[in-house]
Write a structure and sequence with these properties.
The protein has about 450 residues and is an alpha/beta fold. The protein has 21 helices and 8 strands. It folds into 4 domains: about 80 residues, DnaA, N-terminal domain (GMP Synthetase, Chain A, domain 3, 2-Layer Sandwich); about 190 residues, Rossmann fold, CATH 3.40.50.300; about 70 residues, Helicase, Ruva Protein, domain 3 (Orthogonal Bundle), CATH 1.10.8.60; about 90 residues, DnaA protein, C-terminal DNA-binding domain (Chromosomal Replication Initiator Protein Dnaa, Chain: A). A hairpin with a 2-residue loop joins strand 1 and strand 2.
Length: about 450
């Protein structure tokens, strides 16, 4: 059988000559060999974004190069996912650290061995941006990564999808493996757990009890279990029973367990015994991010890109992508990748175009009343005064700014904006012209308007 890892090096050299170093670094190097079967070479991309772009722009080049060096390759299939470590894949230094953490069970063949999901090298504590919404979870994760911690033996963190739980879980794994290589760490997702459990248990229907015990012992022989997406094992009767049997046995043995899920333990129907075990540990929540944290996350991630990303683009994304951190980072990747592939510069207008055209995002709907209230609050005047006929400068200027921002941030017509302020549309036109002129000529005024805009959009 061909040594795919050696052939991969030759393919990489060929593609670097044909496509350039940057294309290989940014796209080709994101692929991992999953296997070759019946002439189909399966390559794994870490995200759907990379899979789609490689499929669209580089698949033909990949196939041609692989065919030249490995005639048995007739087709290439690109999938999205995280790959198990394989003896066919050349190991990096970090991979070797991972391998030390998992011992092979006596009598277990290599295809049956439980190998933990590959860790993302970028998911470390050093790369985790901390804010008010995730500070407690970060501190708890960092402390439990100290194997001699006195905080707890069980940490349970929960949040909605895409808030950074997996990043923290993998940060714990990396820290323990790097500082305590003698410790055996198993990091595994619920989906992988179920797959490996079913695969091992049903290979021999007549030896289910033995298979269950063998599967359990793989975990019991570890020091730390890090389990992601627990909600995905709930409801799968046999897998759920196996997991909680392992969970209780490990706790009774004084081993460390870290679990992440999308809800609190009490929201599952687990029975009083298991429920009380969860509540005996530390339960922490990761709350939705605010504007400041989203901006800092983007600012941190922007350092990994070769393109220049204007600050106003980061502000725009932080203001409008409020769902979760995963989509926030994905939005920035999409904007930068589209700009690079089209040969354009990243700008605010281009970011808006990508977000609207390619991803279906739109700015958050705002009301004129909300804008009035926030401008009045920041400018330290009463809302009643803003809507009154008073014309003192300290009241008239915030009123004009509020009209300007209502025009910028809502889809309301000039007459509708005027009506909301008790004026006609000609007054609104005058306000727009005044604010625009001052914005372009007075830096302090520009800073004020920009800060009010960000405050309103949070």
């Amino acid at each position: 059988m061909e040594d795919l890892s050696e052939i991969e090096l030759e393919v990489r050299k060929r593609l670097e000559e044909e496509l350039g170093e940057k294309a290989c670094r940014d796209y080709i190097d994101k692929l991992t060999i999953a296997g070759l079967k019946d002439g189909v070479l399966t390559l794994m991309a870490c995200t759907k974004f990379y899979a789609q772009n490689i499929e669209k722009y580089y698949k033909n080049d990949l196939l041609a190069a692989w065919k030249d060096f490995c005639p048995s390759v007739q087709e290439i299939e690109i999938r999205t996912g995280i790959l198990f470590k394989s003896k066919n894949v050349k190991k990096s230094a970090q991979d070797k650290v991972e391998d030390k953490s998992v011992d092979k069970e006596d009598g277990v063949s290599e295809d049956e061995e439980l190998v933990p999901t590959s860790l993302n090298p970028g998911f470390t504590f050093d790369n985790y941006v901390v804010g008010e919404s995730n500070k407690v979870a970060y501190e708890a994760a960092y402390r439990i990564a100290d194997v001699n911690n006195t905080l707890c033996k069980l940490l349970y963190m929960y949040s909605s999808s895409g808030m950074g739980k997996t990043h923290l879980l993998q940060s714990i794994a990396w820290k323990i493996r790097q500082e305590h290589p003698e410790k055996k760490v198993v990091y595994i997702s619920a989906d992988t757990f179920v797959y490996r459990f079913v695969n091992m248990r049903f290979k021999d229907e007549s030896k289910k009890d033995y298979a269950n015990l063998k599967f359990k012992n793989i975990f019991m022989n570890s020091d730390i279990l890090i389990f992601d997406d627990m909600q995905r094992v709930i409801g799968k009767e046999a897998s759920q029973k196996s997991f909680f049997d392992i969970f209780i046995s490990m706790l009774d043995a004084g081993k460390q367990i870290v679990i992440a899920s999308d809800r609190t333990p009490v929201e599952f129907e687990l029975g009083e015994r298991i429920r009380s075990r969860f509540l005996s540990g530390v339960v922490v929540n990761i709350s939705p991010t605010n504007y400041e944290l989203r901006y800092e996350i983007l600012k941190s991630k922007a350092q990994n890109f070769d393109v220049d990303i204007p600050d106003e683009v980061l502000q725009y994304l932080a203001e409008n992508i409020t769902t979760n951190v995963r989509e926030l980072e994905g939005a920035m990747v999409s904007v930068c990748a589209n700009a690079e592939l089209s040969g354009k510069k990243v700008s605010l207008d281009y970011a808006r175009d990508v977000m609207h055209s390619y991803m279906g995002y739109s700015e958050r709907d705002l009301t004129i009343k909300e804008i009035q209230e926030k401008v009045a609050s920041k400018c330290d005047i009463k809302l009643d005064d803003m809507l009154s006929k008073r014309r003192e400068r300290n009241i008239a200027r915030p009123r004009q700014i509020a009209m300007y921002l209502s025009h910028e941030l809502t889809k309301k017509s000039l007459p509708e904006i005027g009506k909301a302020f008790g004026r006609d549309h000609t007054t609104v036109i005058h306000a727009l012209e005044t604010v625009k002129k001052m914005y372009e000529t007075e830096n302090d005024f520009k800073v004020l308007v920009d800060s009010l805009k960000r405050f309103i959009q949070r």
